[in-house]
């Protein structure tokens, strides 16, 4: 069966990897990405005489930290270099996370503003049929930007 381009774009992405870049630094491919999202913080106000409902007022946007994990590879050295460079001071950067299938097809792209590393953990051993060393990096950001793609 041959799929048209339109139908292929509607297919769910399976076997996705996440390419992470901070400014011009390529941190490599990650197998898991958790925390991409946004929340509108709501303030509640009770109005005198209005017993039917509480007024909900949107106030600001809140962005959770993003956690990226992968098995240890040679790319781990890129993260270690980035982290070791923080000794001279933490500078906010622009970042990008690109979801790609195993054949390199880009599924989605998220641009991030004011990226800073929060935590790096690795290597740790995931117990299973084969012990796999994994690493996790957690980043904070101040929101999304257009990636221009």
From TrEMBL:
<dbReference type="InterPro" id="IPR010667">
    <property type="entry name" value="Phage_T4_Gp19"/>
</dbReference>
<dbReference type="InterPro" id="IPR011747">
    <property type="entry name" value="CHP02241"/>
</dbReference>
<dbReference type="Pfam" id="PF06841">
    <property type="entry name" value="Phage_T4_gp19"/>
</dbReference>
<protein>
    <submittedName>
        <fullName>Phage tail protein</fullName>
    </submittedName>
</protein>
């Amino acid at each position: 069966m041959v799929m048209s381009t339109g139908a292929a774009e509607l297919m769910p992405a399976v076997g996705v990897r996440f390419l992470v870049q901070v400014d011009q630094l390529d941190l490599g491919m990650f197998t898991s990405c958790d925390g991409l999202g946004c929340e509108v913080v709501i303030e509640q106000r009770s109005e005198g005489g209005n017993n039917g409902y509480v007024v909900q007022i949107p106030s600001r946007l809140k962005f959770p930290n993003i956690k990226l994990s992968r098995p240890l590879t040679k790319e781990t050295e890129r993260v270690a270099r980035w982290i070791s460079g923080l000794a001279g001071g933490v500078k906010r950067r622009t970042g990008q996370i690109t979801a790609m299938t195993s054949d390199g097809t880009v599924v989605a792209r998220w641009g991030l503003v004011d990226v800073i590393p929060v935590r790096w953990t690795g290597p740790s051993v995931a117990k299973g049929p084969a012990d796999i060393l994994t690493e996790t990096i957690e980043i904070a950001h101040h929101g999304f930007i257009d990636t221009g793609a």
